[in-house]
Amino acid sequence: MIIIKTKYLSATNTQGARIKASANRVSHTICYDYALDGVELHYSAVVALIKKHNLDWDVSTMAYGSDNVGYYFAFPQSTVTSK
After folding, report:
1. Is pTM, for the whole model, over 0.70?
2. Per the domain annotation, does 47 fall within a domain?
3. 46 with 58: CB under 8 angstroms?
4. I need a labelling partner for 14 at 20 to 30 A (CA). Which of 8, 20, 53, 58 fits?
């Protein structure tokens, strides 16, 4: 199963707040969009990650959950196969 983890990154002296999405050794960080709320903001980071790396993952079937660190987006159609 493919899992994309997102997390909030606090503002620094040189950058504003951001959301980072990462999965399978790829990541992408977007600026915090104050027009969006909660899961919508983290979902937009997932979509940006998929677009940036030209991944063929179908977000229409994605499930998500969260904890005190961030959100987790899973693609239930993905499986692990053994040889």
Report:
1. yes
2. yes
3. no
4. 53
State the residue range of the domain holding 9: 2-75
**Is residue 53 situated within a structural domain?**
yes
Other beta carbons less than 10 A from residue 48's beta carbon:
15
In a domain? residue 82: no
Q: Which pair of tokens denotes residue 53? A: 């790396």
C-alpha distance from residue 41 to each of 64, 67, 72, 79 (Å):
13, 15, 13, 27
Kindly give the confidence (pLDDT) of every residue in the chain, 83 residues in length, as a single tens digit, with 9 standing for 90 and above.
789 999 999 999 999 999 999 998 899 999 999 999 889 999 999 999 999 999 888 888 889 999 988 999 998 765 555 55
> Is the residue at 59 inside a domain?
yes
What separation in angstroms does the CA of 38 have from each of 1, 19, 43?
A: 24, 11, 9
CB 19 within 8 A of CB 27: no
